[in-house]
Design a protein that fits this description.
Radius of gyration: 25 Å
Strand content: 15-25%
Order of helices and strands: HEEEHEHEHEHEEEEEHHEEH
Number of domains: 2
Strand order of the largest sheet: 6-5-4-10-11
CATH superfamily of the largest domain: Glutaredoxin
Number of strands: 13
Distance between the termini: 19 Å
Structural class: alpha+beta
Oligomer: single chain
Largest sheet: 5 strands, mixed
Number of helices: 8
Protein name: Cytochrome c oxidase, synthesis factor
Family: Belongs to the SCO1/2 family.
Shape: elongated
Keywords: Membrane, Signal, Transmembrane, Transmembrane helix
CATH topology of the largest domain: Glutaredoxin
Length: about 290
């Protein structure tokens, strides 16, 4: 490899690195260089004063493990039911509390909007269960919440397709501990993760979904994996990397700058590795001069 050729390769690599740097800087969110952006609804849990971060609050994913099916709750009619008796197939579970006026409403409302787009039949192919982690809540509150979200679906939906449960502190803790869900009461409200999960018919946790908005393809794929008993990775993390949610347009926008920068960096790295390997091979084949 001649000196001129090596110089040309170095110049190309410098150009690729400069382009990648520009793309990465351009892909940074507005205000990232010191100016705080307005928090999304996913992180605005409650009104002032804002919840303080706590080590007691978070979510430890337990993909492949089973939730506590023996935990008992009260349904909308006040009847005590075993959680495992309600999970006979793929099930979407929403840990919430019904008096929450913020993210829990967004979470359940976001799911209600996407359910009509699913091809699977509610009640037979899958089921949704909202479980309150506030032990003070009653079946009457669960009934009012059910009416609200079944109305919000704005399409025929069986009442047994979405159940709303309340329970005692011991059973609530058994359930939340089994799914790795950690929350903390703060005054009359709760600080808690904004997440839902999908389990198979035997209670195996297949996937966690984060945030208050849903994509129908995410739900459909997760339900398919739950039906087949497959444990999937959290697709939402990949979606969050490639897409940015536009709260005004209520849609996901493809983040072409971030993805392009990643592609450029990977391509430059692969190209450099290729040059190093081919250069080493050529030097090993060239006979040494006397």
């Amino acid at each position: 490899m001649t000196a001129r050729c090596r110089l040309s390769i170095l110049n190309h690599l410098r150009l690729l690195c400069a382009l990648a740097t520009v793309l990465l800087l351009t892909a940074l969110p507005a205000g990232a260089a010191g100016k705080e952006t307005e928090p999304s609804p996913d992180h605005r849990h409650h009104a002032a004063p804002p919840p303080q971060p706590s080590a007691d609050v978070g979510l430890d994913e337990r993909l492949g493990s089973k939730l506590d099916l023996d935990a008992r709750f009260r349904d909308e009619n006040g009847t005590v039911v075993r959680l495992g008796d309600l999970i006979s197939g793929p099930t979407i579970i929403l840990p919430v509390y019904y008096t929450c006026t913020n993210v829990c409403n967004y979470l359940q409302g976001g799911l209600a909007r996407v359910l009509p787009a699913l091809k699977a039949a509610a009640g037979s192919d899958y089921r949704v269960i909202s479980i309150s982690f506030d032990p003070s809540e009653t079946p009457e509150q669960a009934t009012r919440t059910r009416k609200m979200y079944l109305t919000a679906i704005n399409a025929p939906f069986p009442e047994n397709g979405w159940r709303f449960l309340t329970g005692e502190p011991e059973d609530i803790r058994r359930f939340t501990t089994s799914i790795g869900y950690r929350f903390k009461q703060q005054g009359r409200d709760f600080v808690h993760p904004v997440a839902s999960l999908i389990v198979s018919g035997d209670g195996t946790i297949v996937r966690y979904l984060y945030g208050t908005s849903f994509l129908s393809k995410d739900i459909s794929l997760a339900l398919l994996e739950a039906r087949e008993g497959k444990v999937g990775t959290t697709i939402r993390k990949v979606v969050d990397f490639c897409f940015t949610f536009d709260p005004q347009g209520k849609t996901y926008v493809f983040n072409i700058l971030k993805v392009s920068a990643t592609v450029v960096i990977l391509s430059a790295g692969g190209f450099l590795l290729f040059l190093l390997l081919t250069g080493t091979r050529r030097r090993s084949r060239t006979p040494e001069e006397p």
